[in-house]
Design goal:
Belongs to the RRF family. This is Ribosome-recycling factor. This protein is α+β, with helices and mostly antiparallel strands. Helices cover 58% and strands 16% of the residues. The chain has four helices and six strands, in the order αββββαββαα. The strands form two sheets. A four-stranded antiparallel β-sheet has the order 3-4-6-5. It has a two-stranded antiparallel ribbon with strand order 1-2. A hairpin with a 2-residue loop joins β3 and β4. The longest helix is centred in the last third of the chain and has 38 residues.
Amino acid sequence: MSIADIRKNAEAKMAKSIESFKNELGKIRTGRAHPGILDQVQVDYYGSMVPISQVANVSLLDARTISVQPWEKGMGPKIEKAIRESDLGLNPAAQGDLLRVPLPALTEERRRDLTKVVRSAAEDSRIAVRNLRRDANDQAKKLLKDKLITEDDERRSLDEVQKLTDRIIAEIDRLTSAKEAEIMAV
């Protein structure tokens, strides 16, 4: 393994951390509806728990309403119960086969709670990136110890990995600020 491989590997893993963080932010709801909000809700489907997206079509009716169209007739009440019992605080209304899930307006207190959740997710992502930096630095030090690279090469590698880490953490901070501004906007 060379220094370029170490850097490329660290960069790829840090990019995955950013994507994971973006997905996490997408699940945190703001004032607008988003079909991804229901992704973690599980429904009992013939004895096994599956995500709603595997038993129904989830889409948006308007900016504050999600529609859930079950693929089977008998699934409507089960999906409605699963959404109601989830910790999302949503109250679906059945209209024939279609379920309408209106999103209530966020209170100031709930907005503050959501910003805390965003900050927590951001900190978890920063920790993951720092762990990746540590792993990359350990690999470079091992190459030095095995006398496969020079001390100058090791120092250069540590600097490159640090610059990469700083850039990724700055991106996480930017995404966090944008999400907090979106949540606090009335």
